[in-house]
Each structure stands twice: as C-alpha cells, then as structure tokens.
Design goal:
The complex is a heterodimer of chains A (176) and B (352). Chain A is mainly α. Chain A is built from seven helices and two strands. In chain A, strand 1 and strand 2 (22-28) form a beta hairpin. Classes of the chains: A mainly alpha (176), B alpha+beta (352).
C-alpha cells in the first residue's frame, strides 16, 4: 500500500500525469486527490504535481515526529511511527493499542468506524444480535434516504423487536 | 498443480460469456482475512509465517466447497513462473515479489484463487467472466464460511475483520468490475467518468490493479470503503454505477459509428491487418491494437475473430506467457517476434 504523497495517509488514488512527454505517477489519499484534481481543473497549465511535492513535504515531516508515535504495540512491537511510514499494522491487537489514533484515520478513510457486515459464525449470540441491529439501522437509513417508507417501517419493526429481545433479561442468552 | 498445463488452457474469466460481456470483461470479489493468533504478514517471523502457510494448506485440503483447490508454493517458483501467475491474475505483484513461505490455492477453472501470506494471511479471490456480482458473492460467501469452519479469523466487534492495512478493515471486501472502455477513451470522455466515480468514492484502476496503468483500455471499477457498509451494500454500490458506465460507453460507440463510420472502420481494419501480419510487435502496441479489434468485433465491423480469442490474446501475448509457451527464456526482441508469430497463427486459425 503506497502512502499519500501529501499527507502520508494510505493512498487510494493513483494518478498518471503526462506533461510534455514526462510521465509521473502520483499517489494520493481521497482528500488530497480531490484538491489535486480541482487544482488541475481550474488551471490546466499549472503543474499541481510539483506544488504538491514541494509545498507539503516539510509539513508532513513535522507531523510524523510526535512523541506519542514512538510507543509500541506490546504484542508485536510495531510503533505508530512505523505504521505511519509503512501503512500497515503489525498484528490484530494493534487495532486496540492504537485505538485513539486509528479512529480518526478510519473515519477519514471510510467515513464510518463501526463494522456492519458479515460476522464470523463462531461469534457469540450477543455480538450477533448487536450486529444485526447495526445492519438493520444502516438499511433503515438507506431506506429513508431513498424515501422507501414501506421498507423503512418494516425495518423499524424489526429493530424494535431485536431491541426488546436484548433489553429483556429473561430472554437473554448472554449468560449461557 | 503443473503450471505448464495452465499454459494450454484459458481461464474461466476470459470466456467472454457473462452478461454485458461486450463491455464488462470480468467481475472479481476478494476478501482479506487474517488468522487470529498470528501477527500480520509484515511483522511475522519466518517460522510463524511457514506455520500460517501450512495451516492454510491443511484447511484447503478438505474445504467444504464444490471446487477442488490445488496449492502452488510460490516461494519455490522461479521469476518466470511467478510472473506467469501475475499475468493470469491469479496472484498479485506483491505476492510474486514477496519473501518467505507464501503461495496460492487455485481451482481448476481458475475462478477461485486464495493467496497465502500476501499483505494479509489470506486473500480470497473469485473471478468470473461478465457482470456476475451475485454469483461471485455467493461463491465467495461459501468459501469464507468453509474456511472459517476450520480457522479463527482476527475479528473485532467494532472494526470487523482485522486487516494489516486499515483501508481494508471491516468487511475486507474489494468488489471490482473490469470494463473495456475504448470508445470513452477515444472520445476523451473517460476523465468525466473518473471524476464522477471519485465523487461517489469508487476507485478506478488499470488491468493489474493498484498503481497499474490502464492497458488496452481496460479499467477496474471498485469500492474503496470497507467499513460501515455490509458486503451487500458495497456490492450494490458498484452494481448501481456499472449500467451508467455501460450506457456512456455504448453511446460513445454509437456516436463514433454515426459520425465517422468509415474512419473508424479503417482504423480497426488497419489494427487487424497489423496484428494478423506483423513480424515483430511490442506488448504495448499489441494491447493497443487488440483493443481496437475488440471494439470492431463488438460493433460488427470485424467478423473473423471472436471475443474469447481476443480476451485470451491480451493475456497470452504478455512476456511470461510467451516464454512459457516457447518453453525458454526470451529477450525483448525475441519476445516481439514470438508475439507476432502467435498473433498471426491464432488470428489465421480463427478466420478459417
């Protein structure tokens, strides 16, 4: 995974610029790519690639030297600084260890910080229901956005049914 | 699995049969998964890495899925064989260039490929021809469940499936639809499509994925977000956008036919002429000309050659494939001669 040339976040867009016969590849994250493309759009004669390189690099150097970055994951030993430079975490436990730094990053990359997809089959019943709930809420939001109120009403009923189940201790299987 | 046997046959995804296959070459879904009790590949010791590979192999042996998988130990392959697998889209460049215990399990039809010890312990891929999102997902979901019966994946209630790179965390899913968009490239409308896709957070990549150039006017449209959406939602986002791109490409094709039929016909016929008679030809020129001919066949301007054969030629004319076919190392000049000879032969056979 390449890093964004401007801000060091993981690069998700790979732009190939051809200028006067020179071909350069530029790797950018979502936000920087948008700036980059706007710049190219508004002034096609400028060389945004050059600006992006020289304007921003010193700033990102400063950014990487925060003392908190030196703390390592107790399980695999990787530091947050190393993660920043490689773009890859060391082990599953890093997600817990670096939580406070990762949450804003995940928010930035995905626009969300809560999984609502598939669950492993061996996940406990309680997590299973929580996830079902998250998924349904997500679908409800989409249904409302699309003004499909019939579907929205059905989803709301389903959500209430599960919420009731979770809140009623008699029916809870958490202690099994 | 005997790699030489693969050179004699064609992958399922090149068959050119699925829905919308004039524009949509293939649909690919991949999942990133990691074993819960090991560090990620970048931070793992060699012995543990070998253990991951051994456990993966064991698990593939009696996986409860209809297809039978064969494991290829990539760490013992020479560079040519590794490049050959990259060209066939069975492994990534990263796995090819990596170090230590690593491999890939593939099905007979090459529609399933599970990379072991790439960026994540497992990268499961399902690749089929045409626009077949639901088929691919159904198959993928089954494979994922079957693997999970045997191993515990790294999973977190909030973050979902944990991956080495936070850009894949959550579902770990990447849904890609590979489209052949020569008319949008020629009319220069492709940039507009890219801008529109970026606005809705879909990524556009070349034939060989991340960082690769668009070769032969092939583009992969794929999701970027993997967290906060269910697998079905991710698939639907890609699904919704494909018909629009299809419509633009087909409209651009019609427009080209209406406005400059003769010029277009000439251009395509010349491309066909060069491919069927050149004595030496570079890979780049081949891709470019095959793209024109593919467009010509879809527009009914050329009838002598079929889409599946053209799809195959895009892959078979690449460097490692040519060398596997000739069963010896070839330098660039020799490859250009071998490429031209293969093209002449295949096109002549097709026209008979």
């Amino acid at each position: 995974m390449k890093k964004c040339r401007r801000c060091q976040k993981p690069a998700t867009l790979h732009i190939t610029e051809v200028r006067k016969g020179d071909v350069t590849e530029i790797h950018l994250c979502e936000t920087c790519a948008r700036d980059y493309l706007e710049q190219t759009d508004s002034n096609p004669d400028s060389d945004p690639a050059a600006e992006f390189e020289f304007e921003k690099l010193p700033e990102s150097d400063e950014e990487t030297s925060s003392p908190a970055d030196d703390r390592g994951c107790p399980h695999c030993g990787i530091s947050f600084r190393e993660f920043r430079s490689q773009g890859r975490l060391g082990c599953p436990y890093c997600y817990v260890e670096f939580k406070s730094d990762l949450i804003p990053l995940l928010q930035n990359i995905h626009g969300e910080v809560q999984h609502c997809g598939k669950l492993p089959r061996r996940a406990p019943d309680s997590s299973r229901r929580q996830h079902e709930l998250l998924q349904l809420r997500n679908e409800l939001k989409a249904a409302v956005d699309e003004e499909d109120y019939e579907l929205a009403a059905r989803l709301r009923d389903d959500i209430q049914a599960i919420e009731k189940q979770i809140n009623s201790p008699a029916k809870s299987t958490d202690n099994e | 699995m005997d790699l030489d046997r693969l050179t004699q046959k064609s992958s399922e995804w090149l068959r050119g049969t699925g829905p919308e296959s004039d524009v949509v070459v293939s649909t690919r879904i991949r999942l990133a998964r990691n074993f819960a009790e090991f560090p990620f590949t970048t931070r793992i010791e060699e012995a543990a890495k070998a253990e991951v590979a051994a456990r993966a192999c064991e698990c593939f042996e009696d996986l409860a899925i209809p297809a039978k998988l064969s494991y290829i130990n990539v760490s013992t392959l020479d560079e040519l064989d590794r490049q050959f697998l990259v060209e066939r889209q069975l492994i990534s460049r990263e796995l090819s260039e990596g170090a230590g215990a690593r491999g890939v399990a593939i099905s007979n039809d090459e529609d399933i490929a599970i990379m072991v010890n790439e960026e994540d312990h497992l990268r499961v891929q399902v690749l089929r021809s045409g626009l077949t999102l639901d088929d691919c997902w159904k198959s993928m979901d089954e494979i994922d469940d079957a693997i999970e019966e045997q191993v515990a994946f790294a999973f977190h209630d909030q973050y979902g499936y944990l991956t080495a790179c936070p850009t894949n965390v959550g579902t770990g899913i990447r849904v890609s639809v590979m489209m052949h968009l020569p008319a949008l490239v020629q009319t220069r409308e492709i940039q507009k499509v890219f801008h529109a896709l970026q606005k809705i957070n879909l990524a556009v990549r070349g034939l060989y994925g991340e960082g690769s150039q668009a070769m032969g006017d092939f583009y992969q449209i794929s999701n970027q977000y993997t967290l906060g959406l269910s697998e079905t939602q991710v698939i639907n986002r890609v699904r919704e956008v494909v018909p629009m791109i299809l419509k633009y490409e087909r409209r651009a094709r019609e427009q080209m036919i209406e406005e400059k039929r003769q010029e277009l016909h000439d251009h395509i016929s010349r491309a066909y002429g060069v491919l069927s008679s050149a004595q030496t030809i570079s890979s780049e020129e081949t891709m470019h000309l095959l793209s024109s001919v593919r467009l010509g066949v879809n527009l009914g301007l050329i009838e002598d050659v079929s889409i599946p054969i053209l799809n195959e030629l895009f892959i078979q004319t690449q460097p490692a494939h040519l060398q596997k076919l000739k069963q010896k190392a070839l330098n660039s000049a020799e490859r250009n001669i071998a490429r031209a000879s293969l093209l002449r032969r295949r096109i002549a056979e097709a026209a008979e």
